[in-house]
Structure formats: structure tokens, C-alpha cells
Amino acid sequence: MGDGLTRVKQCKQCKQCRRPLDERRRGRPKRFCSRWHRVRYWLEELGELVLS
Predict the structure, then answer these.
(1) Going by C-beta distance under 8 Å and a sequence separation of 6 or more, which residues neighbour residue 16?
(2) DSSP secondary-structure letter at 11?
(3) What Rg, from alpha-carbon coordinates, does the chain have?
(4) pLDDT value at position 52?
(5) Using one digit for the tens of pLDDT, what is the confidence trace for 1-52?
(6) Against a cut of 0.85, is the pTM above it?
(7) Which pairs with CB-CB distance under 8 Å and at least 24 residues apart come from 9-17?
(8) Both ends of the chain: CA-CA distance in Å?
(9) pLDDT of residue 36
(10) 12-49 in b/e burial notation, b at 16+ Cβ within 10 A?
(11) CA neighbours within 13 Å on the CB side: how many for 49?
């Protein structure tokens, strides 16, 4: 019948906590579930850049 290959659509996840995000915006999809997670992610990236 079929070869068992199916295409699964991956849902977007928050880059900080990996929580699934809803897909409301098509032009510029959300990357974080809250503002605090956005700030925290960029602070961690900045700290990593400074310490390296």
C-alpha cells in the first residue's frame, strides 16, 4: 500500500522553554511565548558572547 512515509508538520516552539506556539502570524512567526522569555534569551546570548 504505502511506504509508511508521512510528512509531519512541526509546530513552532518557544526558543527559551520549548513550549509549543500557536501559528497565528504567517509573515513573521512568533519565536517566544512571552516577553520575559525573549529578554531572557537575548541576555543569555549576550552573556555568552561577552564571556567567550
Answers:
(1) 32, 33, 37, 38, 40, 41
(2) P
(3) 16
(4) 83
(5) 556 666 555 668 888 888 888 777 677 778 888 899 999 999 999 999 999 8
(6) no
(7) 15/41, 16/40, 16/41
(8) 54
(9) 93
(10) eebbbeeeebeeeeeeeeeebbeeebbeebeeeeeeee
(11) 6
- All 3 cell numbers of residue 3? 511506504
- pLDDT at position 43, please? 94
Q: What is the CB-side half-sphere exposure of residue 35 using CA atoms within 13 A? A: 0
Instruction: Provide the grid cell at 14.
Output: 518557544
